[in-house]
C-alpha cells in the first residue's frame, strides 16, 4: 500500500474576539456588532507564502535545522535554516526561522515546469519524498546527520538558483555555487553542488555589486544536486561537495540505518492490521524528523 501525503491545505479561520462583543451579552449584540466582529476574522494559510487560497506543497524536516518545502503551485523549493541544531537549545537558535522571520537558503530555488498543472501525485516520506509530474519525477531527500538536502530528477532537468542582493559569491564553477549571506547579525554559507554526471552549472557572466546573483544547475537524469547551509566556518561547501560525491544509494542506506537505530525503542505491533502498522511506522518517522539532533522539537 502506498501512502501519498501531498499536503493540500486550505485557509484556516482564526477568530479574533471583538472587545464590544466581550462586554455585552449575546442578546444585546446587534447585527451591526456581529458584522464588525466578522470583519476581524483573519484568514491564516498553513503555507509560508501567506496567501488565502489553497496551495499544494510537500513539507519535510531535516534534523540539523533545515525546513524543506516544495510548493507545487510555484515550482519552488524553499529551505529555511535555524543554526546550531544539535549544539544549542537556546530558543533564539531553535526558533531562528519561523513564519514571521526566517532565513531562506538562497533567496529562490525554482524547478521550471514542475508545477501544479503537470503534477500527478506523490509518495511522501519525511526523509525521502517522490513527486511525480507529467514527463518528470522529482526526488527530495537529505543527509540525516548534516544540514544538507538531496535533489535529483529521473530525466534531465534544470534548477534555477538566486542569491539575494548583497550576498557575496565565494565559488562559481561547473559543479558548484557557494555564497555568503548576512541575516540579523549572523553570517551564513549556502552551497549547491552537483554530483558525478554530465550536468553542469551555468553562471551569470557579470556580477554587479549589491545585486542578486543567478545560477542554473542542469543535472542529468539521476545526477544529484546537494544544497547545504550553515554558519560561516561550519563548512557548508565541504558538506555539499562530499555529499554530492557519494552515491545517492549509499546516503539513503546510511540514513535508514540511523533512522532504524533511533526508532529501535518504543515499537509495538498491531496484529492483523498491516496497513495500520505501515501508517504507524510512517508517523513514527515523521515524529523523529520533527526533533533536531539536540532533542528539541521543531514545527513545520
CATH topology grouping: Beta-galactosidase, Chain A, domain 5
Number of helices: 6
Number of domains: 1
Strand order of the largest sheet: 8-9-10-11-18-15-14-13
Named CATH architecture: Distorted Sandwich
Order of helices and strands: EEHHEEEEHEEEEEEEEEEEEHHH
Total strands:
18
The major beta sheet can be summarized as: 8 strands, antiparallel
State the separation between the terminal residues, measured CA to CA.
Answer: 26 Å
Counting helices, strands and paired strands, the structural category is alpha+beta
Name of the top-level CATH class? Mainly Beta
Taking all residues together, what is the mean pLDDT?
82
Q: Radius of gyration over alpha carbons?
A: 22 Å
How is this structure best described in words?
The protein has six helices and 18 strands. The chain has a single domain, classed as Beta-galactosidase, Chain A, domain 5, CATH 2.70.98.
Key traits:
disordered N terminus; 8-stranded antiparallel β-sheet; 300 residues; alpha+beta; 18 strands; Beta-galactosidase, Chain A, domain 5
Amino acid at each position: 500500500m502506498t501512502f501519498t501525503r501531498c499536503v493540500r491545505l486550505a485557509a484556516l479561520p482564526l477568530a479574533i474576539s471583538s472587545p464590544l462583543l466581550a462586554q455585552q451579552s449575546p442578546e444585546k449584540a446587534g447585527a451591526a456588532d456581529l458584522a464588525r466582529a466578522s470583519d476581524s476574522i483573519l484568514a491564516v494559510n498553513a503555507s509560508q507564502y501567506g496567501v488565502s487560497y489553497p496551495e499544494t506543497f510537500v513539507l519535510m524536516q531535516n534534523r540539523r535545522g533545515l525546513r524543506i518545502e516544495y510548493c507545487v503551485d510555484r515550482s519552488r523549493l524553499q529551505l529555511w535554516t535555524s543554526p546550531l541544531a544539535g549544539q544549542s537549545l537556546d530558543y533564539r537558535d531553535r526558533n531562528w526561522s519561523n513564519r514571521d522571520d526566517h532565513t531562506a537558503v538562497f533567496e529562490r530555488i525554482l524547478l521550471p515546469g514542475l508545477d501544479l498543472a503537470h503534477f500527478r501525485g506523490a509518495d511522501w516520506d519525511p526523509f525521502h519524498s517522490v513527486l511525480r509530474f507529467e514527463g518528470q519525477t522529482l526526488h527530495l531527500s537529505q543527509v540525516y546527520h548534516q544540514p544538507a538536502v538531496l535533489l535529483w530528477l529521473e530525466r534531465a532537468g534544470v534548477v534555477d538558483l538566486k542569491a539575494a542582493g548583497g550576498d557575496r559569491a565565494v565559488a562559481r564553477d561547473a559543479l558548484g555555487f557557494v555564497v555568503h549571506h548576512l541575516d540579523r547579525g549572523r553570517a551564513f554559507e549556502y552551497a549547491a553542488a552537483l554530483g558525478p554526471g554530465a550536468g553542469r552549472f551555468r553562471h551569470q557572466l557579470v556580477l554587479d555589486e549589491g545585486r542578486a546573483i543567478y545560477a542554473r544547475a542542469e543535472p542529468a537524469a539521476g545526477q544529484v544536486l546537494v544544497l547545504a547551509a550553515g554558519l560561516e566556518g561550519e563548512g557548508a561547501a565541504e558538506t555539499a561537495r562530499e555529499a554530492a560525491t557519494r552515491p545517492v544509494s549509499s546516503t539513503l542506506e546510511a540514513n535508514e540505518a540511523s533512522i532504524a537505530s533511533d526508532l529501535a525503542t518504543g515499537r509495538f505491533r498491531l496484529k492483523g492490521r498491516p496497513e495500520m502498522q505501515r501508517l504507524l511506522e510512517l508517523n513514527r518517522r515523521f515524529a523523529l524528523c520533527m526533533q533536531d539532533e539536540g532533542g528539541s522539537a521543531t514545527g513545520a
